[in-house]
Specification:
Elements: H1 7-54, H2 57-63, H3 68-83, E1 87-91, H4 115-118, E2 123-129, E3 132-142, E4 149-158, H5 159-199, H6 204-220, E5 224-229, E6 234-237, H7 239-245, H8 257-264, E7 269-276, E8 279-290, E9 293-303, H9 305-343, H10 347-371, H11 375-391, E10 393-397, H12 410-428, E11 435-444, E12 447-454, H13 461-466, H14 482-493, E13 496-501, E14 507-514
Parallel strand pairs: 10-11
Antiparallel strand pairs: 1-4, 2-3, 3-4, 5-6, 5-9, 7-8, 8-9, 11-12, 12-14, 13-14
Helix pairs in contact: 1-5, 9-10, 9-11, 10-11, 11-12, 12-14
Subcellular location: Cell membrane
Protein name: histidine kinase
Keywords: ATP-binding, Cell membrane, Kinase, Membrane, Nucleotide-binding, Phosphoprotein, Transferase, Transmembrane, Transmembrane helix, Two-component regulatory system
């Protein structure tokens, strides 16, 4: 099956056809106008010659002489040859010819219209006479003195003579037409060549099919797709991309600062976390090239909000499970110790040891439950305490902690407290013992204060300034997101977040969340 013509080839053929038709129509119009101009020029010429002859005293004198033809025939022929016209006929008012290019016709009646000339006017007409079709003018000859009409003068040019003049101009017209066609064809070829490069030689059916597939894929794919040109303008965004970025309307949206920052960094990205609104997205970025030219940037986005939440919950459950396993192991050791002491008859010592262990375990629970009414936050603190104990970290809840009810959304409070504690546990993980983390959560002056301290290595000033930025991590892997979530919650409430150096070393992270009215 023969390959269908591409759009460029079809456009080239159509342009050549249209240009050829236009040039043909223009040439025909030019020829017709030239013919009309030649005819008007011929009429003006024969009219001027006829009027000149009619006003000649020699002609008037000859018409009153005994043999007008003897004088008028040579006179008329001399003028005809001098002016390069086809005939000059001088006649009597009764149409009798006194001169003619064909001498045998002298004395015969003139064939043509003379009524208007006999009335003192002028006749201009196209007429088929003895010499064929011609344009002629007939004017009266008046006698000197009384002005009576004593004869008529007819001067004419045949149509063949006019056409020969036009035919002589045809080579020039043909050359101009040919040059116009060549220029038009060359321009069409250059345009079609450019179009062929831009359409890659595809035909209309292929481009239609490609667009249909392209449109279907864009609407069906479950990843956000953002295409940006070399000037940083959004040229395309699919449905999922609009949903993830919170864009509305049909036009290209402005990108959030977080996404704009990813594009402006001019580096390939693979699974880069980014916070957009209340969503945790994973971004991949790469430049698009064709024939060595950079066309723009393609950014793909995947929604990991729910996955991050589930991962966080799973990590918390895993940590709590490990802490419970360690506590169960420790409890088993203490239980064996108590039983052994009972078997040895040291019952009082066994009771005292069991009572001390029970009081110690209950102390933190009573403190947390008594200070915090929010059950989810209390459970989080108890779980983090057990997790800290498993890591060899002493986690204490400040006795000044007080939180009644739910002054802010529970989920947001858990995000702030949980991520701050996780960050502190991570900070003291590589420090020598004793490793301590303190937590203070209380409501004061219309805001919720969350402060987490640790005795880890602390942060340098430049690290403290960048700690809440997307992707920052002490590990340097670019995947830190916990403190970014804290910053996002604080900014959403219009609160503040700050990192300071503790007096004895370590870091103090303070977040203030204004209580909504």
């Amino acid at each position: 099956m023969a390959r269908r013509w591409s759009i460029a080839r079809q456009l080239f053929a159509l342009q050549v056809l249209v240009v050829t038709l236009l040039v043909a129509i223009g040439t025909t119009g030019a020829v017709l106008l030239a013919r009309q101009d030649a005819r008007n020029a011929a009429i003006a010429e024969v009219t001027a010659v006829a009027q000149t002859i009619a006003h000649s005293p020699a002609v008037a004198g000859a018409l009153r002489g005994p043999d007008p033809s003897a004088t008028l025939q040579p006179y008329a022929e001399a003028i005809r040859r001098a002016t390069d016209i086809d005939f000059v006929v001088v006649m009597a008012p009764d149409r009798t010819r006194y001169s003619h290019p064909s001498p045998e016709l002298i004395g015969l009646p003139f064939a043509g219209t003379v009524a208007d000339a006999l009335a003192g006017g002028m006749v201009v007409e196209e007429y088929r006479g003895s010499l064929g079709d011609s344009w002629r003018t007939v004017v009266p000859v008046r006698a000197p003195g009384d002005g009576t009409i004593i004869g008529l003068v007819s001067v004419g040019i045949t149509t063949d003579t006019i056409n020969r003049g036009l035919i002589a101009q045809l080579p020039l017209v043909g050359a101009a037409t040919g040059v116009a066609l060549l220029l038009a064809a060359g321009g069409s070829w250059l345009l079609s060549r450019r179009l062929r490069r831009q359409t890659h030689g595809l035909g209309p059916a292929e481009m239609t099919r490609m667009y249909e597939y392209y449109d279907a894929v864009l609407h069906a794919v479950r990843e956000g797709l953002v295409v940006v040109d070399r000037d940083g303008r959004v040229t395309l965004i699919n449905d999922e991309g609009r949903r993830l970025l919170g864009a509305t309307g049909d036009g290209p949206p402005g990108l959030p600062p977080e996404v704009s920052g990813l594009i402006s960094e001019q580096r390939p990205m693979v699974d880069e976390p980014v916070l957009v609104g209340d969503r945790v997205l994973v971004a991949n970025r790469r430049e698009t090239r064709f024939d060595g030219r950079v066309l723009g940037t393609v950014l793909t986005l995947r929604d990991h909000t729910e996955l991050r939440a589930l991962t966080g919950e799973l990590d918390s459950v895993r940590g709590l499970t490990e802490a419970l396993r360690a506590q169960a192991h420790e409890a088993a050791n203490r239980l064996h110790t108590v039983l052994t002491m009972v078997e040895l008859g040291r019952t009082d010592d066994a009771i005292r040891l069991a009572t001390e262990e029970l009081a110690l375990a209950q102390q933190l629970t009573d403190q947390v439950v008594g200070a915090v009414d929010e059950p989810a936050l209390a459970a989080l603190l108890l779980g983090k305490s057990a997790q800290a104990g498993e890591r060899g970290v002493e986690l204490t809840v400040d006795t000044e902690s007080r939180l009644t009810g739910s002054p802010v959304a529970g989920r947001d409070l858990l995000t702030v407290v949980g991520n701050l504690i996780d960050n502190a546990l991570e900070a003291v993980g590589g420090s020598p013992a004793p490793r301590r983390v303190g937590v203070l959560v209380r409501e004061e002056n219309g805001e919720v204060l969350v402060r987490v301290t640790d005795n880890g290595p602390g942060l340098r000033p430049d690290e403290a300034a960048a700690a809440f930025r997307r992707g920052w991590s002490t590990k340097g892997d670019g995947h830190g997101i916990g403190l970014s979530l804290v910053r996002q919650v604080a900014e959403r409430y219009g609160g503040s977040y700050v990192i300071e150096t503790a007096p004895g070393g370590g870091a103090v992270l303070t977040v203030r969340l204004p209580v909504p009215a």
